[in-house]
Protein: MCUR1 regulator
Amino acid sequence: RRLYFDTHALVCLLEENGFTTQQSEVIVSALVKIMNTNLDMVYKDMVTKVQQEIALQQVMSHIGGVKKDMIILEKSEFSALRSENEKIKLELQQIKKQVMDEITKVRADNKLNLNLEKSRVKELVSFHYFLHAQQDRALTQTDRKIDTEVADLKTMLESHKLDNIKYLAGSIFTCLTVALGFYRLWI
Structure:
């Protein structure tokens, strides 16, 4: 081992300050032993360049394996996400068709009800023509009833429309959330 100070100069310095030659040599010898012990402890904790390169190669091989696993996982998850997205699209189209059929059915029922109500009002008017006061009251009540039913039907149609829009928006946001989740996993 190399010493980073001149031991003879230290012995001479100690002798000049009143130590005997034997005392000076013992002190310098003790300092050298302490330094060697400290250096041994430091060298135990140190890694050689070869060991460092081996560890680096092991880490790089682990990183390469993880990259391969990530690529495989990304491809499989992406294809699964794509197939799930296609299923959701088909379900949305089916639901849209069902909703449109339901709306058409409700409209037809409403038209039929309105036509029946109108024909009933006309019959009442023709049958009770001579009772003008009763006719006005019946007509007013019927008009109110028709207006109320029309308003109720319009409200119901708007409610169905809003429910359909909420469901479609929820499905779209769910798809987007799943897509963003996978996107976040890739990054």
Summary: Residues 49-127 form the longest helix (79 residues).
